[in-house]
Structures are given as C-alpha cells and as structure tokens.
Amino acid sequence: MVLIFFCGCVGPKTVYRANLSTPPPAVLQQNDKRLSIKQPTPPLVRGSIPSESFTKNHGPFVVSKYGISDGLRDGPKFGTATVYYPENAQAPYASLLIVTGFVHPESAMKAWGPFLASHGIVTLTIGTNKLKDDPFKRRDALLDAVRSLKAEHLRKDSPLWHKLALDRIGVAGWSMGGGGAQLAAAADPSLRAVIGFCPWLPKANFEHPVPSLIIAGTLDSIANVFLNARAHYAGISETTPKLIIEIPYGGHWIANDPANANGAIGQIGLSWLKVYLEGDTRYRQFLLTPPISGGYFRHNLE
Hints:
Strand 9, helix 6 (229-235) and strand 10 form a beta-alpha-beta unit. The strands form two sheets. A nine-stranded mixed sheet has the order 2-3-5-4-6-7-9-10-11, with helices on both faces. Strands 1-8 form a two-stranded parallel ribbon. The chain is of the alpha/beta class and 302 residues long. Helix content is 23%, strand content 21%. The chain has one domain: 3-Layer(aba) Sandwich (Rossmann fold). It contains seven helices and eleven strands. Helix 4 (135-152) crosses helix 5 (176-187). The longest helix has 18 residues, at 135-152.
C-alpha cells in the first residue's frame, strides 16, 4: 500500500498553542461534579525496581478488555473503542487513549492495549468515524474518548468503577493520529503525557506543557521525519519535557507494536508513561540513553 499526503510540506510553520486560562473542552463537556479532582493522585509505584528486560516485555498483571457493547459510552466523535485494563493491579489506574492513523482501523494499534495494561495502565484504543479523518478530527476523537473513559469511573457496572486516577490521563496516536494527539495536548493541557507514533502534521509547532514523546523511523516515506517528527520535536516548547527517538531502518509502522525493534519501542513508550503519567521516577533511567543504537535520539530531560 502506498499512501501520499499532500499538505503543509512548504511554507511557514503553524503554531498550535495551549490556552492555559480556560478549561479544556473535555472538562467543559463533563459537568458531573463527582468527576472533579479534590486531591491530586499520588505517584503510582508498583512492584520492585524495573529491569531493562521487564520494560521490554509484558508485565505481571492479567489483562481483560471490553467495549461499547459492554456499556462504554459511544461518543459521537470517535468510532470503535476497546478498553484494556489490569484485573489484579492495585487501583487507582492511570490511563492512555490511543487513536489510529489515516485509512487504518482501530486494530492497527491493538498491540499496545494488552502490553500497557499488563503493566498497570488502562488503555483505550479508538477508531475514527471516517478512515480519512484529518488530525483535527482525530484530536476531537481523543478528547471525546477521554469523556467516555472518565464516565467509566462512575458507571457501577464498569470494571473500572471508582478505579481511575482522573488526573493521570494521557493521549497518543499513530500517523495523523500522532498529530491529533499533539493537538489534543494543546487543547487540554491538563493531560499528563502525549506520545506521537510516527506522527504526521507537517511543520507544526506545539506550545503546551504536556510531556511529549515522539517515536519515528528513519526510513518513514509517509511521515517524513524532517517535516514531521523532528519538526514536532523542535516546535514543542523548550519548557516542556520532550524526547524523540528514530529507529534505524524503521518505516511508518515501526511504532505500532511495542515488541518491534527487539522491544525498544515498548521500553521507551512504557518508561515515558511510567515517569510522566504515573509519576514512577524509577523508570527515568531508561529515558536518558537510547534503547537502540544507530538512530536519532534527543531529549531535554535534566
């Protein structure tokens, strides 16, 4: 399959800036006072000190999944949806929402669900209403899905009833979904982490405070790294924690499975979420040096 995107490849960069003076859209839509954050959730630290092998493989928790047919709110701005959650991890849980890429179904990102949930992170993967939805529609899909996930905290028949850390939610996306995830962070700066998997939104600057990880492939012919991944990294505010890694010889699908690149994809993704989504600084050691040699690796972490 050959995908060619013609948009924004020339001309000045576009700046997408967070408005820190107004509540984010997802909060405005969710008016149930029971979802208000009275006290911040303390860091979620589980298990012993992690090893490199531990971060590259599935974790210790049993994983189950459910979807819209099981009671999950069917939001108008996203399509299909699957929640992956740990059955036997101690609550509360941080959570990550992942949107797929251009002309691909939700299943393109399904490998991340069981992987992250097995490490204690609830993961909601979503599809879009239309396969060709642009990054802005994918932003809206993510923010709408945040509303659905938060509602699970209050739904008595939900496996996640009273088990979510509502102030520890992050977003991620692949390709156009990666651009959409950054747009979601700009729209809702209360998010705790964002990941762009081979992201696509050419020459964009994102001015927001949400810690941002970018995973790309050096041979990506669809989302050219110079116009997308590297441009995103350079355009993210210097005051925002950020990291970019390009996997040598990796193509546009390199980040869709945490097992790719001998587990390096999972290691960097999990470690980012453990540090910035859950607050477990023991994983910071895996962010300071590249998990694989030969690629492009930059960060502004102290």
